Model the fold of this input.
Amino acid sequence: MLQSPVKFFRNLPKKICAECGQNIHEQAESYLLECDRCLAKKQE
Done:
């Protein structure tokens, strides 16, 4: 049985930062593996 694309994307697990383990709040087309806080630390 096929499910709607909306249901599919809503059921995906939340993305977790590879550096600190926090949930990443991202936009749909984001390929980031780290959260904004960890990325900012690396730029300093």
